[in-house]
Amino acid sequence: MPEEVKSDIAPKYGGGPQGLGDPDDLFLRKVEREILIPQKMRDKAKEEKCAEEVKRFTECCANNSILMVYKCREENTSLKSCLAKWYNDEGFKNLCKEEYLRERSEYRRTGVKNLEKRVGVSM
Hints:
Shape: elongated
Radius of gyration: 20 Å
Subcellular location: Mitochondrion
Largest sheet: none
Number of strands: 0
Strand content: under 5%
Protein name: COX assembly mitochondrial protein
Organism: Cryptolaemus montrouzieri
Region (Disordered): 1-24
Order of helices and strands: HHHHHH
Pfam family, one: Cmc1
């Protein structure tokens, strides 16, 4: 009698060439919709859309140490305003969602995470 192999991955999320899911599946799990895509939006907004505001706020904090709470209010407000603008932009949200789906599809197709591809496996 053959033994059954149990997997931690639900059958609907398994399969595909690497056993990581169908690369062409566009369905988003709750954690992807509510956590991973918003995190991608925050990171992308900080790095690309609000880079100048982040830089000014970081410099202000470095220059004012303990007094930064009072002295960097304007920079903080500017940064929060910029981030909120992009976080509430539907076009930006869709762009991040499409980027996430492309990265996930590539991961499911190759089994190589995006970070490993960028920096190479150096360990």
